[in-house]
Structure formats: C-alpha cells, structure tokens
Amino acid sequence: MPDIRILIVSGMATIGFSLFAVLFFGHFYKREVRIRALSSKSVEGVVVGYKRTQIVDVPIVEYRVDGQNYRNSLKYYRVVRATLPWKTNQVASDIDLMAQRNQKRW
Q1: Which residues have a Cβ under 8 Å from the Cβ of 48 and sit 6 or more positions away?
Q2: CA separation for the pair 57, 46 (Å, rounded)
Q3: CB 57 within 8 Å of CB 51
Q4: Phi, psi at 70, each rounded to 5°
Q5: Which of 26, 47, 41 minimizes the C-alpha distance to 96?
Q6: Model pTM greater than 0.70?
Q7: For 37-54, what is each residue's pLDDT tens digit?
Q8: Whole-angstrom Cα distance, residue 97 to residue 51?
Q9: Could you tell me how far CA 46 lies from the centroid of its own chain?
Q10: Is the pLDDT of residue 90 over 60?
C-alpha cells in the first residue's frame, strides 16, 4: 500500500512541476514576443547639427512623430578606437560615427 502512495505523490509532483515550468517559461516567452512586436517601429530623422561638448561629436537629429517635432542628440555609451599598422592613432573626436554607420549599410 505505501508503494502506491509514493508513486501517486511522485507522479503528481512530476506533473505539477512540468506544468509550472511550461506556464512560467511560456509566460515570459509570450511577453518577449509581444515586446518585440510592439518595439518594431522606427522613425527616420534628419541630422541638423552636432553636439560638440563630449569626446565624440554626436549628431543632433530632428524627427517628427504624430505631428510633433522632436530634436534629440544621439547617445553613445562606448567609443571604440581602432588603430591600423599603416596609420597613426586617431583621436575619437575626429571620427564621424554617423558617416561610418551610413557607409557600412551600403
């Protein structure tokens, strides 16, 4: 008799844990899919100037959303400087990051 109880309890625990895992991870998977679907919008803007107060000259971008104009400067948290054997080191402020980004797309 005790063997049947152990089997029933262990079977219920296995089914309960499996159900919990599927529901828990399924919830977060659906959440990530929803966030990705809602975050897929993009806005195009025009570079109207450069903010020269930082190490890197960051572009000031003007764009329009729902009939309202916005003007923001882009934010860079890290600037990587690459050196080449045939060139000297360049200062980070001499590099136009937007121009490099646009050249890589084409």
Answers
A1: 60, 61, 62, 71
A2: 16
A3: yes
A4: -130, 150
A5: 47
A6: no
A7: 887 777 788 888 888 776
A8: 13
A9: 22
A10: no
